[in-house]
Amino acid sequence: VKIWPEYDRPSVLVILDLFLSAEAKMPAKVSLRIPAAAGAPHSVAVRELDGQLYVLDYTSEISGDWNTLTFTTPFPEVWIEYYDPSIMKNGDVRSFAFRWAGDLAINMLNIEVQQPLTAESMTFKENMGAGKLASDSLTYFSSSLGAVSAGTPFTLNMEYIKRDDTLTSSNNLPVQAVE
């Protein structure tokens, strides 16, 4: 799971990069929930043998706080992107709670959070370790949570200070020459 607050919209980009078990019979029918507040997903795609992502047909059904996406994938890697608008702003303090509904059993849950470009003091209620500066000059927090049983919901709560509305993907990112 990749969580990028205020990346290219004033919401939170959530990327689910799912790898189905080697035991899964292909094509596999999958259903999972994303927050209903996110509306339709930005992308539901499958990584095919050539390494490229291709759009995957899906259906969706909203029930309460959740939007259930159902699709059939011919390959084991599925990429889902959605924008969650539920980021809260209280002055310069921003907070967000990523919610996983627990629809699928997970052998290894890895979470990465990108600190927004002009944000500072990013903290988490759950343990995400110390942030690390990456080659793109952004700070990333990551955690490997291991196996999560089906039916086990999960929430990651984060908070940070941001004094402006600059988006991370703006043209203000530092540029470095390639050697």
Outline the structure in words.
By secondary structure, the chain is mostly beta strands. The protein is 0% helix and 54% strand. It has an 8-stranded mixed β-sheet, with no helix packed on it. A 4-stranded antiparallel β-sheet has the order 9-10-15-12, with no helix packed on it. A hairpin with a 2-residue loop joins strand 6 and strand 7. It is globular, with a radius of gyration of 17 Å. It starts with a strand and ends in a 17-residue tail after the last strand.
List the helices and strands and how they pair.
Blueprint: E1 2-5, E2 12-19, E3 28-35, E4 43-47, E5 53-55, E6 58-63, E7 66-73, E8 77-84, E9 88-90, E10 93-100, E11 106-114, E12 119-124, E13 132-133, E14 139-148, E15 154-162
Parallel strand pairs: 1-11
Antiparallel strand pairs: 1-2, 2-8, 3-7, 4-5, 4-8, 6-7, 9-10, 10-15, 11-14, 12-15, 13-14
Question: Summed up, what is this model?
Answer:
The chain has strands at 2-5, 12-19, 28-35, 43-47, 53-55, 58-63, 66-73, 77-84, 88-90, 93-100, 106-114, 119-124, 132-133, 139-148, 154-162. It is mostly beta strands and 179 residues long. The chain has an eight-stranded mixed β-sheet with strand order 5-4-8-2-1-11-14-13, with no helix packed on it.
